[in-house]
Amino acid sequence: MLDIKFVRENPELVKENIKKKFQEHKLAYVDEVIALDEERRATIVRGDELRANRNKISKEIGALMSQGKREEGMALKEQVTAQAKELEELGKKENELTEKVTKLMMSIPNIIDDSVPIGKDDSENVEVKRYGEPVVPDYDIPYHTDIMETFDGIDMDAAGRVAGNGFYYLMGDIARLHSAVISYARDFMIDRGFTYVVPPFMIRSNVVTGVMSFEEMDAMMYKIEGEDLYLIGTSEHSMIGKFIDTITPEEKLPLTLTSYSPCFRKEKGAHGIEERGVYRIHQFEKQEMVVVCKPEESRYWFDQLWQNTVDLFRSLDIPVRTLECCSGDLADLKVKSVDVEAWSPRQKKYFEVGSCSNLTDAQARRLKIRVKGENGNYLAHTLNNTVVAPPRMLIAFLENNLNADGTVSIPEALRMYMGDKDKIVPTK
Fold first, then answer.
1. Which long-range CB contacts under 8 A does 48-57 form with residues at least 24 apart?
2. N or C: which end of the chain has fewer CB within 10 A?
3. How far apart (Å, rounded) are the C-alpha atoms in residues 231 and 253?
């Protein structure tokens, strides 16, 4: 969320940013929020005037009463009573205007970084760099669920009967591989100096609206009926929420955290064959990384975060590439994002396995995440990135490590989590 003062002073810049994000329907929000804010500030000024006048009159009433001028004193009391009613109405009006301003401000997108390419959607994202040589073997690579089934490693039919579409049972070596990837990712990030955290898997509505846009909330979040609680779509939500309404001493920054959680998402809309199986599902597990830092350090940490994901995938011999997300593909709170995509030898193309985002002070402003510096308090910057999300990671892992005989090789880095196996063998 932008600073309302910034919007007042830079309306044309804010409108130009909206155009770059191809959200022309929001252009009217800028003038509307400025007008509402002006009215709100006038209401506050009038209230302050009335309170100052009331204090002054109260002193005059005391003086008149002590002088025996009861009639004049009572007349002034009537003025105080009338002003009290006006103050009450002004308070209600101020609250209503504040709510309207906040709602509009939360719909106006953050100012994107100058380096972000302009484009309407993810089809216009720009490849930055490739890591590792993508290989297409001379034997067929089956669909990922077909690979899993040769190990008796997945049962989506039973999951459908139990929970509906978008769920799965993982079993045997595939389930163990899933856990191994999570454990390896956890230790990988700990070795890089990040603090391991297991956060709450539910958050309150004020945290939800603090970490994401209304559009994301509607598309992603599951609401707990009868409770002010939502299931998290990623641990970033509760991890950033951890710092709500806090003031952290500057010397304790940066806070570098890596968190594990299950994730729950609605995943609205119909999807093609490549997004079936375990690619796009309602429940999955993920290792995440989150940084809270000083504003001048957020660019540095942005590059560190996406590089961590690249390094992890390369340590498992999976080719990846990085993509610079274009303006139209950025969620409203983000100023810059880089996606990490893994190579799919079956599809002969890359697919998304992680997304790194710099939100600057947007979440911090909504959640009042502040830093205590030498010259006073200021808003922190927040960043997040996927370490691994095993359903998609499993797709990339199985396809890139599948052998012609149907076995799957286990890279050395992962063997200690797989009982020292160097491969897993199909049961079918």
1. 50/83, 50/86, 50/87, 50/90, 51/87, 53/83, 54/80, 54/83, 54/84, 54/87
2. C
3. 29
